[in-house]
Amino acid sequence: MQVLFIGTYILGAIILQTTIFARLNLFGVVPDLVLVSVIIFSVLNSGRKPIVFSAAAGFLQDVLSFGMYLNTIVKVLVSVCVEIVKESFIGSEFVLSLILVLVFTPLSLFFEAVVFVFFGIRQVAFGDLIINILSASLYNLAAVPILFPILRKISHGK
Cα–Cα distance between 53 and 7 in angstroms, integer? Predict the structure, then answer.
């Protein structure tokens, strides 16, 4: 039953991100609900569960969008990094989620821009990249208080 809730959540997050939030963009930037969800889910769970969650969410996001498997790679790497960081963190899971969203949002956007430039997919202006990073960071931080209780319930099966 929990797998069904997790699958529904991932699909719902991707649909929200690509339909509703695409219209409510800030400087052309939409929140990355999948990245935020991967971070929160990885903070709340341990073992293989966060890796499977992030791989499934990233793969589904890739299948439904760009298809270069960049999202899958980024989401799995973020999940692994969160797993490493959370073992040495003493404090609230919510605060850790906020901090990690603030750290991994710019890193993932920068990594994505480097890949796009390296493979010649598109050119990236430095000023635009900075504005995108700031906007996406604010958007993703705003999503944490909304997604955290939902993922807590889903991950603990309540």
Answer: 9
What CATH number does residue 43 fall under? 1.10.1760
Q: How many helices (H) and strands (E) does the chain have?
A: 7, 0
For residue 64, the enclosing domain spans 2-155
Residue 157 CB coordination number (10 Å): 8
Put simply, whether the predicted model's pTM sits higher than 0.85 gets the answer yes
- Count of the separate structural domains present in the chain: 1
Phi, psi of 29, deg, nearest 5: -110, 135
DSSP state of 143: H
Residue 7, both tokens: 């699958």
Q: Write the pLDDT tens digit of every residue in 101-113.
A: 999 999 999 998 8
What single letter denotes the amino acid at residue 64? L
131-156 tens-digit pLDDT: 899 999 999 999 999 999 999 999 87
